[in-house]
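Reopening: GGDEF domain-containing protein still failing for me.
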Amino acid sequence: RSKDEGGGSHFAYEPQMHAHAEERRKLEFALRHALERDELTLAFQPVVHAETEQVMSFEALLRWNSAEFGPISPAKFIPIAEDTRLIVPIGEWALRRACEEAARWPSNIRIAVNVSAEQMLDASFASTVVSALASSGLAAERLELEVTESIFLRDGGAAQNTLQQIQSLGCGIALDDFGTGYSSLGYLRNNRFTTIKIDRSFVQGAAKDSPESLAIIRAVVAMADALDMTTTAEGVESERELDRIRQLGCTKIQGFLFGRPMGAIEAAALLARDADRKIA
Ligand code: C2E
Ligand code: MG
Ligand code: MG
Ligand code: MG
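Support: Ran it again with your exact input. Result attached.
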C-alpha cells in the first residue's frame, strides 16, 4: 500500500460516504430489475397555454415504485440509470409507453418525453424514435423530445446530428431547464429547438421581483420569439408566479398550480373536462 492510499491524512475516511455508496449499490441492483418487474410507470403533467389555460400537452415523467424500497424519486434514480446506462432501455420503454398513451388523446394534444445524453449519443436512438412512432401510430408532430444542454458536452457533433435526424422526422425538440446548465448561445445558433423551458428558479425569482430573473426571462422570451421558438415556464406554483409569467409573455406554463404529474386515467379525464369547457 502506498502512503497515499493508507489511512490518509487529507483523505479522511467518512462513514457517511460508505453508507451512501452502499445505498446506491442497492438501488442500482434493484433498478436493473425494475423494468422486467413492472415497477416503472409514467406520470403525465399538463402544460397549459399561458393565456387560454387550455391544455396543450403533457410531459411524461418516470416513476419508480420499488418492491424493495418503495417509491424512489427521479432525482435519485435517474442519475443512477444514467451512470449505468440503464437509462437506454428504461428511456426506450418510457418513450414507447408515452407515445402509446398520447395516441389515445385528441390529435391537438402533444406529448413531451425527456431524453438523457446517454440515450441521445446511442447510435440507434433515432431509429428507436421511428419505431415508437410507427408502433403507436402517433404522428411525429405530436412528439416533443426534451433535452438539456448537457447533451452537447461530451460529443456536441454527435448530439447535433441526432437532433437533426429527429427533427427531420417532424418531432419537436425542447431545451429543458434552460439557464441552469452550460447555457451557450452557440447551442441555440446551431440547433433548431421548438421550445425553451425556463427553469423554475427564474420563475421563483420573477415572483420575488428579482431584477436579474425578470431581465433574463424577458431576454429569453424575446430571443425565443425572434428565433421562432415558444417558451414554457417550469414549476409555476402560485397565482403570483402565474401573473408575473403572463406579464413576461411566456407562451406556456407547467406547474403544480395547473396540475401535478398524474396517472394516465386522470390525464385522459382532464382532457375530457377541457374539451367540455371548450364547447360550453
Ligand atoms: P424535468 O424534466 O425538468 O421535469 C420537471 C420536474 O419538475 C418534474 O420532477 C416535475 O414533477 C417537477 N415539477 C413540475 N411542476 C412543479 C412545480 O410547480 N413545483 C415544483 N417544485 N416542481 C414541479 P420529477 O418528476 O421529479 O422529475 C425530475 C427530473 O427527472 C426531470 O426534470 C427529468 O430531468 C428527469 N426525468 C423524469 N422522467 C424522465 C424520463 O423519462 N427520462 C429521463 N431521461 N429523465 C427523466
Ligand atoms: Mg423535462
Ligand atoms: Mg425541466
Ligand atoms: Mg427542471
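The first helix runs from residue 15 to 31. If you still see a failure, please send the error message rather than a screenshot.
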